[in-house]
Amino acid sequence: MEFLNRKTTEYTLKFLILLTLVIFVNLAMRHQIFRWDLTEEKRYSMNDATISMLQNLEEPVYVEVYLAGDINSEFSRLQTAIKQTLEQFKTYAYGNLQYSFINPDEASSANARNEFYRYLVDKGIQPTTVFDNAEGRKSQKLIFPGAEISYGGRSLPVILLNGNNAAGASQAITQSIENLEYELASTIKSLASPDRKSVALFQGKGAPSGKVLKGLNDAISSKYDLIPVQNTERLSNFDATIFLRPTEDFNNSELYDIDQFIMNGGKSLFFLDGLMMDVDSIKDYGAMALPIETGLDDLLFKYGVRVNKDVLQDVNSGNFPIVTGNMGKDPQIQLLPWPYYIILNKYANHPIVRNMNAVYGKFVSSIDTVTANGIKKTPLIFTSDYTRQLKGPIHISFENLKEDIKPENFNLKNVPVAYLLEGEFTSAYQNRLPPEGKENSDTKNKSVDNSIIVASDGDLLLSEIDRKNDKPFPLGVDPYAKHPSNFANDQLILNMLNYLLDEDGLIISRNKDLKIRPLDKVKVSEDKVWLQFVNVALPIVLIILFGILRYYWRKRKYSKFNG
To answer: What is the per-residue pLDDT for 520?
Structure first.
């Protein structure tokens, strides 16, 4: 009896020790998250910047996703990926994130549904028309692949369908899934960050102003403060500066200010035209496209690039309306390909432009690189495989529209039209006296590690004006296009700013690459019976066999025990 009591006490103590150890480990590890991602491409792993941002949220985040209801299989795949991503976000946020899926079609009446549709569109969440063919019946419906994120009394929309339309519907969905982490995380960060960075929009030297800038302001105002500036001496007060299509000479003092802004770590984006041309200036007999001299060429040459005094034509172009004749007194207007309006849809494998839809350029020039020690030059955007270069000055006329576009005349391919420059820049004023009035300035000859972007099209960030009501279109809208969606000019400038100003590296999550491994349909058809047996019949046979063997093993074991 005493032996049994000793054994009971020993087992009880061991159990209590084990229980205490389990409780202690759980308490010690309650704020630690362990996840093992066994996929080859690490599809379930998150960027360290995303995790850090989520773990430091001070208030709850509410996410309302509007991709719900009766949707086809491809969008169901996107919906599932959104749920999985938000579940991961919720885990890393220690429960400080809540989400729900709302079906816009679940309204009490047709009027209420249409009112809700208008509410979403006004928020910036544009609908997508989905065509489906189920059980031999074709149907179409509107879905809203977007969400609204709220934090601290503020809210922002986020578009969750943003792949490259040219890649096809299935691939565009896959690209959207790859971008989910970044789109959601960057929007949450914008809401949670107490300090907004300021971006100067330089408006002197003949740069455009007025209504054509509304689309640009709308595109980036949700995340940055865009402030017009005409004096280069004020640039040091800003985190970044956009130089958008200046057409007049910068004086030496102004170039010095820009150079020293970059040397001191200021981020700069240059959207420059090589030739001066505006479609509104083309009259009956055409117009001359003349080289633009601003003085910025000298700075950029020192930094490693040169915007050429030319204009590119491309087979992958937009259209422009032209009067082709008259029917009675009425002019007949027809949309014809206009090779000076280029649809840019070839990108580098870089987080700024990866998986992005096409952007729309007008009178685009080419860019060359030159030697600049210590500078990494990354081309971001290219023309198509059929491009032609016309060196300025050139005569441009609407009569060119009536000419057939012959691909054999377009003998260049993949001409770079935007570059990212990174590294320690050398000042253009190294070993030179400061300009007059800057004698007391402390000239910096070498920059800190910095980045700038140069694009050879000043129209990329300008909105078209609706001639019917004199109101600007959103950025990236081509009023003459037959395309199903807007171009991604607004996403381009936002990605550029995010990359240049993102100190945490959140935008690196755009590099996520999901590999789709489709089944070989021919092999599946050939081995159909065998695959059905392996996946359906074999598990059942194995379970039955295991049961039989276990039965005889138990029978043999206990028969020996009884014997």
So the answer is: 59
Q: How far apart are CA 451 and CA 269, in angstroms?
A: 9
Buried-state track 39-52, b at ≥16 Cβ within 10 A, e below 16: eeeeeebbbebbbe
- pLDDT for 416: 96
Q: Rounded to whole angstroms, how far apart are CA atoms 146 and 135?
A: 28
Q: What radius of gyration, in Å, describes the C-alpha atoms of the chain? A: 31
In the structure encoding, which two tokens stand for residue 95, read together?
């429960």
The amino acid that residue 269 corresponds to is: L
Do β-strands 287-291 and 359-362 pair in parallel, antiparallel, or remain unpaired? unpaired
Alpha carbons 373 and 379: distance in angstroms, whole number: 17
DSSP string of 227-239? EEE--GGGGGGSS
Angle between the 169-192 and 48-55 helix axes, to the nearest 10 degrees? 40
Task: Report the run of H or E that residue 472 belongs to, with start and end.
Answer: strand 471-472
Q: Comparing C-alpha atoms, which of 457, 310, 456, 317 is closest to residue 390? A: 310
CA–CA distance, 371 with 378 (Å, rounded to integer): 14
Is residue 258 within 8 A of residue 268, CB to CB? The reply is yes
Closest of 445, 442, 432 to residue 252, by C-alpha: 432
CB 33 within 8 A of CB 45: no
Which element (helix H / strand E) includes 501? helix 489-501
Determine the length of the chain: 563
Q: Which residues contact 76 (CB under 8 A, 6 or more apart)?
A: none
pLDDT digits (tens, 9 = 90+) for 494-537: 999 999 998 777 887 776 665 555 555 667 677 777 777 778 88
Tell me whether residue 331 is exposed, middle or buried, using C-beta atoms within 10 angstroms of its C-beta: 0 to 12, 13 to 18, 19 or more: exposed
Alpha-carbon distance of 123 to 58, in angstroms, equals 25
The per-residue pLDDT of the chain, averaged, comes to 84
CA 302 – CA 424 distance, rounded (Å): 12
SS3 of residue 426 by DSSP:
strand
**Helix 73-92 and helix 48-55: axis angle, to 10°?**
60
Q: Which residues contact 64 (CB under 8 A, 6 or more apart)?
A: 99, 100, 102, 147, 148, 149, 150
DSSP 3-state percent helix, strand, coil across the chain (nearest 5) = 35, 25, 35
Contact 336, 377 (CB under 8 A): no
**Which pLDDT tens digit goes with each residue over 151-198?**
988 888 998 888 777 667 778 888 888 888 888 998 998 888 878 899
Residue 4: per-residue pLDDT:
47
For residue 85, give Cα distances in angstroms to 55, 174, 180, 348, 352: 15, 14, 7, 26, 21
pLDDT digits (tens, 9 = 90+) for 80-128: 989 999 998 898 888 889 999 998 888 778 888 888 888 888 888 888 8
**Cα–Cα distance, 51 to 546 (Å, whole number):** 46
Q: How far is residue 352's CA from residue 500's CA, in Å, rounded to a whole number?
A: 10
What share of the chain in percent tops pLDDT 70?
A: 87
Q: Which residues pair with 289 in a beta bridge?
A: 394
